[in-house]
Amino acid sequence: MSKHIYLHPEPFVFENGRELTDLQISYETFGKPNADRSNVIWVCHALTANADVLDWWSGLFGTGELFDSNDYYIICANVIGSAYNSSNPLSVNPATGQPYYLSFPEFTVRDLVNAHQFLADYLDIKQIEILIGGSLGGQQALEWAVSHSIAINHLIVVGTNAVHSPWGIAFNESQRLAITTDRTFYANHPDGGAKGLKVARAMALLSYRNYTTYANTQKEDDNEKLDHYKASSYQNYQGEKLVKRYNAYSYYFLTKAMDSHNLGRGRRSIESALASIDCPTLVLSVNTDLLFPPQEQQFIAQHVPNAHYQEIESTYGHDGFLIETKKLTKIISNFLREQKEYLNELV
């Protein structure tokens, strides 16, 4: 594993016209590129993840796993706005000498992709063998494929959509309401909005899991209990856990970026954008996903010309894309093997 920082040498222009004069992208690499750089796997991470994909997607990535750094050159870059060393609201604004906080430029999923394209150019990567992402990462992967700014040989997206839904936007806005209700959010302090972020994370968990998940893991065995329920403790614990590793400003801006996702913006339509994807594509859903329900992935698969659709059975809801790594491994390995066999038949 190697950690790196890419400093963009020119002003970075956002989709809304604003600029950053000192864009910084934090990224990690695992393994080594082969002679013709044909073994690149690029991972697009989800909302609050870092670039250490071997940590948060262990079981799919790692030594002895399907995506082994002994075989692949694996790249995972933190998105703009992330709390993990890419340019974000806590970065210092060179014009003021103080952190940006709420003056940081609002950005879109398309901006995240454009920044990573600059990184790919810097790394002299002309093709990506496998581009993979789930949730917000899947939105990025789809946007990158539709942009046609780099050759992609295989595209894999999990628990994502072609346009963020009113349901998803409502969840995000509710979380932002919780954050902005915390008056410290406007205090221009690195810990600003921490209490609101805790509430936001607790709300988000309800969309990441589902009724069955909580029934299986948080059910009470004591019929006499009147307070201090497992489910209550769990919500508090998960909220505090995020506050310890993240900040409210990054969370606020990244949820807005997720809301911006629409493959049809500036293009003829969402359907035509999907139809332009010309690489073999695996679209995966989790059958109990409340936040990105399977019909959203089915829509993607229906409109991408060479798409293969699979549904994973899981009680974990949206988080199933991170937890059900054995099922993911089986489906993805079959997909890649079938693609290899098909190419061999053409030779």
From TrEMBL:
Any one biological process term the GO annotation gives: homoserine metabolic process
Chain ranges of the AB hydrolase-1 domain: 40-323
Complex and partners: Homodimer.
Function: Transfers an acetyl group from acetyl-CoA to L-homoserine, forming acetyl-L-homoserine.
Record pathway: Amino-acid biosynthesis; L-methionine biosynthesis via de novo pathway; O-acetyl-L-homoserine from L-homoserine: step 1/1
Keywords, ordered alphabetically: Acyltransferase, Amino-acid biosynthesis, Cytoplasm, Methionine biosynthesis, Transferase
Record protein name field: Homoserine O-acetyltransferase
Presence of the UniProt keyword Transferase in the record: yes
Class of enzymatic activity (EC top level): transferase
Record-annotated active site: S135, D289, H318
Classification lineage: Bacteria, Pseudomonadati, Bacteroidota, Sphingobacteriia, Sphingobacteriales
Catalysed reaction equations from the record: L-homoserine + acetyl-CoA = O-acetyl-L-homoserine + CoA
InterPro entries, per the entry: AB_hydrolase_1, AB_hydrolase_fold, HAT_MetX-like
GO molecular function ontology, one term from the record: homoserine O-acetyltransferase activity
Source species: Sphingobacterium paramultivorum
Any one Pfam family match given in the protein's UniProt record, by short name: Abhydrolase_1
Enzyme Commission (EC) number: 2.3.1.31
Residues reported in the UniProt entry to bind substrate: R201, D319
A Gene Ontology cellular-component term: cytoplasm
Underlying gene: metX
Main location: cytoplasm
Locations listed in the record: Cytoplasm
Family, per entry: Belongs to the AB hydrolase superfamily. MetX family.
